[in-house]
Structures are given as structure tokens and as C-alpha cells.
Amino acid sequence: MKTTLIITTYNWIPALDAVLRTVSDQTRLPEEVIVADDGSSVETRKLINEWQLRLNCVLIHVWQADVGFRAARARNLAVNKASGEHLIFVDGDCLLPPHFVENHRRLIRPGSLISGGRVLLTGYQTDALLGSRVESYSKVFTGPKHLNLWWLPLRNRIPLSWRGVRTCNISILRQDVLAVEGFDEAYTGWGKEDSDLAVRLEKFGVQIVSGRFAACVSHLFHKEQPRSALEANDVALAEVVAASSWKPKKSCLRSVYYEG
Description:
This protein has 260 residues and is α/β, with parallel strands linked by helices. Helices cover 32% and strands 18% of the residues. The chain has one domain: Spore Coat Polysaccharide Biosynthesis Protein SpsA, Chain A, CATH 3.90.550.10.
């Protein structure tokens, strides 16, 4: 099975550089990495071009024009471009411990979504990491959440709810994402596009499985995104939650091409 790692980014070059460094240190590299770029400047493209020469796997850059927060559409661009059967989604501010990809591969099954955890780094930790060329990020991968317990008993027997799913750290088979027509691109502005996908997958019969103590990221500190669209996105999500079953929506997976 081929794995595609999808990294969402927007104009934070030091963070993306750090994330790609942790990708290069994986115990098992993904066969393909796609940076889903929500309108970054040319400097991000230059960084990705540099990493294409350094990363020992395929690295692809998909880009869309900057007309506001459109993470759902950026991820759909990457899904449509992906050649892997197994998709791992992370954000461009999340550092990956060395066993991250390997453990997501171990846990994934048809009809399941692996929901991984995260550790929130402080502003001081983030500044220290991004402000110096450290040789290793090992110090941020300590603590109980970063234990390598992928075999943990009962993991698959206690399904999780969609409420805990965040696309800063999930994996799923591409066929299941396509079955529910991907992310709903009607969600613009920060918030709830990941919950919407998880709800529709649950209604479709996909089981949400915990990646706890196996697949955790370390999340770099940053200021919160503007929440101006959150109220409207909450209303849209409530309609999806209230629906008796999954139904196709015209605003899902409209991006059947890619740019950049």
C-alpha cells in the first residue's frame, strides 16, 4: 500500500521547513508528500523546490490563489493529485516524531479513520526550535503522548466520536475520502471543515479509531486564526450532524484539478 502525506500550509516558511525535516527523519518515509498550499507567496515554492532535491521520496506542491482561508479546497486539490491509497493529513505547523508514518500505516484499515493526538508547544519552545538550526527535534517528542504503543489493546474496540477529529493529524484510505466526496469547500474561514468530513464519514460507516500513544504530533505555537466565519460554519455543521444519513453535497470535492 502506497502512502501519501498531505501537509497543509500558508506562508510560514520556518515551520514548513521544520515539518519537512521531521518527514526526512521518519523510520519509514511515505512514498509521496504533497504540500497543499492555500495561497502562499513564491518563497514557499522556493523552499519546496529545495526540499525536492533533499527528500528521498516524491514531493509535490499544489497551490491555489490566496482569496481567504480555504483549507478544505487546498486539501481536495491534494486528494485529487495523490497517487497513494493511504492518505495522512497534517498541518504545516506540526512536527512528526520518527515513528509517525510507520505507525499510521500499522493502524489503518479499510473503513477506518485514525485520529492522532497532538502536544501543544509553548511560544518559548517554538521560538527556540525555529530560531536555531537544531540538529534534532527529539526533545519535543517526549512525554506519554509520544509513546510508541501502536499495538495498544482495545484500540479498535472503542470507537471514537467525530468530535475529536482534527485534520492536523488523521489518516484514512483515499477510497473512503472519495466515497463521501472529500472536504466540503463551502467551509471558508477557520473552523469545522474537519468536523464536517468526520461526521459524513461516520454516517457512511467509517469507524473513527484512536491513534493515542502511537501517532502524536508536536504543534508549534502561533496566534489563533480569526474566528469570523466560525458561527456560520457551526450552523452548516449542525445541519450535517442532524441529517439522518450521509448525502452528497455539490460543494464537496469540486476541485478536480490542481494548480501549481
